[in-house]
Amino acid sequence: MPVMLPTKLLRPITIACLSVALALPCASFAADKSKAEKAKPVAATDPYAEVQPATETIDLAAYQRIRDEGLNHSHVMDFAVALMDGIGPRLTGSPNLKKANEWTRDTLTKIGAENAHLEDWGEFGLGWQQLNTWARMVTPDTAVLILQATPWSPSTPGPVTGDVAFVSIQTDKDFDQYKGKLAGKVVLFGAMRDVPPVEKALFERYTDKELEDMTEIQIQGGVGGVPPAMQAAMQSRMERMKLADKIAQFFADERVAAIIEPSRDARNGGGSGGTFFDDNGATIGRTPYVAGKDIKVPVAVAAIESYGRLYRLTQAHVPVTVEIDVETKFTGEHEHGFDTVAEIPGTDPLLKDQIVMVGGHLDSWIAGTGATDNGAGTVVAMEVIRIFKALDIKPRRTIRIGLWTGEEQGIFGSKGYVTQHFGSAATATTPDQLQLPEFMRRATGPLTLKPEHKLLSGYFNIDNGTGKVRGIYTQGNTAIAGIFEQWIAPLKDLGVTTVTNRNTGGTDHLSFDAVGLPGFQFIQDEMDYETRTHHSNEDTVERLSPADLKQIATVEAIFVYNTAMRDQMLPRKPLPQPDKEQDKRKPLDVMPGAVPQPAAN
Ligand SMILES: [Zn+2]
Fold first, then answer.
1. Contact call for residues 259 and 110 (beta carbons, < 8 A)
2. For residue 156, with 0-12 CB atoms within 10 Å meaning exposed, 13-18 middle and 19 or more buried, which class applies?
């Protein structure tokens, strides 16, 4: 679907174009002029020019009604069980994600949202689903192995039995020793790792001290930008990614029967006890979802204990054979990605074209059902909409829900949505940057803004699992900290205490932040997200905490309510200038006696 710009959004843009010098095309938005003249722009439509009050107007009666609906009449688990158990895992490009897009759209309509629809963010790649995967050791003993296919793995031609060979490839030099030796083999790919005892809890909540520490800001010593250590880490990651493509091709050329990988570990030794992870770290090849770059050899990722026995036997030179059946299905080569979008229209004649967004990503990996990542954020956002409709709240601004896809491969869905609706910047085209997937490339600007950029007050995201909200990251928007502090004061008894100016990354609010829009992720209790559930076969409904999800929906609904109802839009950070970023970091020319040098490249 092309960019959606309903005519109701156009009126204030016409006003803005007429009254403010804007570098935006005005002509195509002049159609609705007569209505525009009726509604004089009493309220400012330039979010950068609005004066913010020192004291927020807090509607405690609304807080009370939202708390009652969200905590005492919650339906968040109805949404959760339907999505996770009824539909299941939601890999981008898969038939299940299509079902989930349609179910979220239709369910949002059912609970009273308007204009529910899917928006195409662009081509993603291969459609794929796992039908079944099993494997067993047949020599020297029989044993059932705990494993599943990695996403986008091809099938074996039915069950195949092969001798097991251990392969370790760390650099380009390592290929030679395996050449001509792997045909028909089941390859154990990856060194056995430590499996430490689980001495620390897999389940944690933030202590008051940890939350307090989180409010402190560390100022970097350098000129800013990416610190050298992080640059080095990115460089080595790039090298590994390049090697991954070569490895995938090598195994195909050598005609190996199948590959079994050991699952990575997680925090506090959580990658054990039958838990395994099937994310980017397990897929062989850089972009296995792209036709032409797809993996030609079946790959499965095994629980570390299953891998360990095979590994130790091969290291002891005991002949091992494994029978493995990977049954998967490719369902399309050029599947597009879609975001689910729906609205509760605003009612204030002057503010209804402004937007408050709430959302999270709908897609997941495949080994579990994506309950905490990110079924939680999805069902909570849907519950926020349900709360508004159940209480028949008439928001002044339009509330819009966005459920993104392609997040796990590079926040594609939210980035696509932001590009189509709000703005974007060109990314670097230097050789080193071109080797990175597009979402990791540096923006070199300048920002190109769309008319809707002026209309979005804020976006609220949940994507850190099932843990309740303990506060919010302002993402460096210090002008908003005092506002949020006032909003959460009546929520202390729910455990919401902390506003930090720190950034948090890794999810869809970044797409908004990148173009200067207020996008926020809440601080959520850790629970067993980083230790066990995030991208694992254990990410199921059992890992959801209904009490926490009720709290999240209630708190998020209150944030959305306040944003929709206050007189002003939320304050913004200065508009990013990615095109000027490099220049701003250049040393000043102040050294006495320095001889000017010719410009370097
Ligand atoms: Zn996520």
1. no
2. buried
Among 308, 333, 358, give the residue marking a domain's end: 333
Q: Is 420 helix (H, G, I), strand (E, B) or coil?
A: helix
Tell me what pLDDT residue 601 has. Answer: 53
Q: How far is the CA of 540 from the centre of ligand 1 (A)?
A: 14
Residues in contact with 168: Cβ distance below 8 Å, sequence separation at least 6, in sequence order: 174, 189, 190, 191
Dihedral sign from CA coordinates of 133, 138, 142, 143: negative
pTM: 0.90
What distance separates the 2 farthest-apart alpha carbons in the chain? 85
Write down the residue that tokens 């030679």 correspond to.
Answer: 176
Q: How far is the CA of 462 from the centre of ligand 1 (A)?
A: 9
361 Cα: distance to centroid of ligand 1 (angstroms): 6
Per-residue pLDDT tens over the stretch 491-504: 999 999 999 999 99
Are 341 and 329 found together in one domain? no
CA of 507 to the centre of ligand 1 (A): 6
595 found inside a domain: no
**Is it the case that residue 238 has pLDDT exceeding 90?**
no
Q: What is the mean pLDDT of the chain?
A: 91
Going 496 to 497 to 500 to 505, the CA torsion angle's sign is negative
